[in-house]
Amino acid sequence: MNWQTLDISIESKIAWVRLNRPEKLNALDMQLFIELDRVAKQLTKNRDIRGVVLCGSNHNFSSGLDIKSVMSKPTNMLKLLFKWLPGQANLVQRVSRNWRQIPVPVIAAIEGYCLGGGVQIIMGADYRIAHPTATFSIMESKWGLQPDMAGLLGIRDVMPRDIALRLSLSAETINAQNALDWRLISQVDEQPEQAALALLESFSQRSPDAVCAIKQTIRSHWSSSERGLLARETWNQIRLLINKNTRIASKREMGKTEQDYQTRKNW
Known about the structure:
The protein is α/β, with parallel strands linked by helices. It contains 12 helices and 9 strands. Helix 1 (30-45) packs parallel to helix 4 (91-101) and helix 10 (208-221) packs antiparallel against helix 11.
């Protein structure tokens, strides 16, 4: 696909997804919504990649919704919000939720502005690393709206409810240290993209099937019933015990081989 608003590359089995509207501080227009949805679906099917870095061009993640562009056509809001059933994700929600469904780890590397829809998108990532000067705001209430891009799925996983209410109601802008203290992000680093890459490279030393099984178990069953979590642990462990990459991992750990891992199974 000829990407117009994204810069996509795969290097050493790490996929880089870079929002690329620098003239608009990577604000979200219709084309960017569409392309974020498409690339996430493509990466979900790619069994060769070992991780994803989600970032923005020109030292900004995203300034949020490009309201003027999105509102230029009356049909745009219908395209963004339409869904067949209430519990399904519409386009505006999929650009956050989709990252949760990719089997491999997704790390957001954040610089500069991360506002409104930008915050919603990074909350779909598994881990978020921000530059010390990055700024954040859940700013939908400024426009008389509520957050509706599925970012609350991630926020409820990591943030106390009272802090989530405060940030959503006030639309205040906070710095990286506040975001870290309040668990909106996972780590602060002077070089977030390099830190994200280093972390994914460390994950790549493990069996790709084990990595996917662990993400699936934690993502899907972290807040489920005890019965559900125990069942998922057991089922995934059985799959891993008969998996060729598990045997390779054991031999690598004991120093008996430097064999590369095989392409992972579907998870």
